[in-house]
Design a protein that fits this description.
Elements (H helix, E strand, L loop, with lengths): L2 H4 L3 E5 L5 H10 L4 E5 L4 H6 L4 E4 L25 E4 L1 H9 L3 E17 L14 E14 L5 E6 L4 E6 L4 E4 L11 H12 L8 H16 L5 E5 L3 H14 L3 E7 L7 H11 L4 E5 L1 H7 L6 H23 L4 E3 L4 H6 L24 E3 L7 H10 L4 H4 L19 H20 L8 E15 L2 E14 L7 E2 L4 H14 L3 E6 L13
Parallel strand pairs: 1-2, 1-3, 3-4, 4-9, 10-11, 10-13, 11-12, 13-14, 16-18
Antiparallel strand pairs: 5-6, 5-7, 7-8, 8-9, 15-16, 16-17
Helix pairs in contact: 6-7, 14-15
The structure holds xanthosine-5'-monophosphate.
Length: 516
């Protein structure tokens, strides 16, 4: 990374919020370099990055609790603009003599915020007087520090924003980084450009060059790399990037773990031929199914699959001549949701939290800091065809986390057939490309039905279709009724052992996209 791109960026001090990486991503959407540092980073380390501005993230702790995460008070003297979000705002208030209290009810979800009339904050350029924002807090700022101007409140009169030191230090109780906050992007943009004076120097095109250089430095001139290819966008982009750097020292392994979708194995192998990658197909379905026999706990499933993946890679790697590196298409959300960024473990993504400790190979994860949409933008720069990049995301553990209850060949086949019908109906309706992800889930819930005058007692399929930009948050897609109706009757008519079809209309949060 060149110094000019790096300096003059925004440093985000992470207090453990689920949204920290999202803040970083929003900043990068404006082509400004952003870097996440843990709140424990020494002042020297923060200054080394020469930030134009600092954002203090939210976090699960209380600023008035014992051993509350804090920062060096000199960061709040106004010499560098600071924006505190949620916990970050409460921390500023508490550190500078304001009063933070446990709120009576807290605020969670979409909340109306009203800005003070004629508020002079440069943060609000182009933002209306009232907006709906995303709140998620218990503590609140009961009185801002001396000299601070409160410039927003929610309808319950809770302080929603304050500004001090001529706008060089500001706090927002709500999350401008979250999609559900109206004008969130404008607020961040105003902070980044108008208040911090940052410049848009960080370009994804340069990322390819930088990442290639880093790969070449890490791997060196002789080591071999193997890559677990899943057929998805992330591992494919990672493989094409690395193959361009190290050529035929890369071997890719496509593991059929028995949890793939209908015809996926053959379709994916066909596609890889066109990308000039050397791909070895391994049918390990018996091994995976045996290991998962009788396992229904989601976390246990993920850990077993994560470990077995690596064992299969290790076996293949030995056959191929001992690779030193295991290349994975791990992206930011995998890291965040597996708790590696300091937050709560939501679910162990098979390629992060599920890795065994005694692994033989070193991990190569060039996409670890990118979000899905960034990876998709990099695809064309590596000449990966569009239709490949538009495939819906599919979790590494595959249908294993969509087949709730006991995993067996018959139930997996049922799910595969139902899923293929749903996807074909969505595709026929011309909706596939506009949906982030659509899939079926097989539920171990039996209900009574009738088929040709005969009583049935069969399992249930749930349909799920979500819209999202980054998989961090998602909304249920309002599919046309005819599509749902046709899908439901086809599934019940064509797939044995399914007696009922239901639609999952929950967003994320509170649900996750996958059921397990
Ligand atoms: P959740 O269910 O956590 O999913 O809301 C967010 C996105 O990640 C995908 N996902 C995974 N991808 N390995 C992956 O490569 C995994 O273990 C995994 N679990 C979930 C999910 O399909 C969605 O796009």
């Amino acid at each position: 990374m060149s110094e000019s791109e790096k300096t003059g960026g925004i440093v985000i001090l992470d207090f453990g919020s689920q949204y920290t990486q999202l803040i970083a991503r929003r900043v990068r959407e404006f082509e400004v370099y952003s870097e996440i540092l843990p709140w424990t980073s020494p002042l020297d380390r923060i200054m080394e990055s020469n930030p134009r501005g600092i954002i203090l993230s939210g976090g699960p702790r209380s600023a008035i609790g014992l051993d509350a995460p804090s920062i060096d008070a000199s960061l709040l003297d106004g010499s560098i603009p600071v924006l505190g979000i949620c916990y970050g705002m409460q921390l500023i208030a508490h550190s500078l003599g304001g009063r933070v209290e446990r709120g009576r009810l807290g605020e969670y979800g979409r909340t109306r915020v009203i800005f003070s009339p004629h508020s002079a904050s440069a943060l609000l350029k182009g933002v209306p007087d009232k907006i709906d924002v995303w709140m998620s807090h218990w503590d609140e700022v009961a009185s801002p520090p001396n000299g601070a101007v409160k410039f927003a409140a929610s309808e319950s009169e809770t302080c929603a924003a304050f500004s001090m030191l001529g706008g060089r230090v500001q706090g927002l109780q709500f999350h401008p980084e979250v999609e559900s906050t109206e004008y969130g992007r404008e607020i961040l943009k105003n902070f980044i450009f108008d208040i911090c004076g940052a410049s848009p120097l960080w370009k994804l095109g340069n990322w390819v060059e930088r990442a290639s250089w880093l790969v070449s430095e890490s791997v060196g001139e002789t080591a071999r790399v193997i890559c677990g290819l899943s057929g998805g966008v992330d591992s494919t982009v990672a493989a094409v990037l690395v193959s361009r750097v190290i050529g035929d020292r890369l071997d890719c392994i496509f593991v059929d773990h028995g949890f793939l979708r209908k015809d996926e194995s053959s379709q994916v192998m066909e596609m890889y031929k066109k990308l000039n990658l050397r791909v070895h197909h391994v049918d390990a379905s018996d091994r995976f199914l045996d290991a998962l026999s009788g396992v229904t706990n989601p976390e246990q499933k993920r850990k077993i699959i994560g470990e077995l993946f690596v064992r299969v890679f290790e076996d293949e790697s030995r056959k191929l001549g001992n690779a030193k590196w295991l290349l994975q298409g791990t992206i930011y959300p995998d890291v965040i949701e597996s708790g590696s960024a300091g937050g709560d473990v939501i679910k162990s993504h098979h390629n992060v939290g599920g890795l065994p400790e005694d692994m033989d190979m070193k991990l190569l994860e060039p996409l670890r800091e990118l979000f899905k949409d960034e990876v998709r933008k990099i695809g064309p720069l590596l000449d990966i065809p569009d239709h490949f990049l538009k495939r819906h995301p599919f979790p590494g553990p595959g249908l294993a986390v969509r087949c709730l209850g006991p995993l067996g060949r018959e139930r997996l086949d049922t799910l595969r057939e139902a899923d293929a019908i749903f996807i074909s109906e969505i595709t026929a309706a011309g909706l596939y490309d506009s949906i982030w992800q659509a899939f079926c889930v097989l539920l171990p819930v039996r209900s009574v039905g009738v088929a040709g005058d005969v009583r049935t007692y069969c399992e249930t399929v749930a349909l799920r279709a979500v819209a999202s930009l980054d998989a961090m948050t998602a909304e249920s897609v309002r599919l046309p009724w005819e599509v749902i109706d046709r899908t439901a009757s086809r599934i019940c008519g064509e797939v044995p052992n399914v007696g009922r079809v239901v639609m999952d209309v929950t967003g994320k949060p509170p649900s996750t996209i996958e059921w397990e």
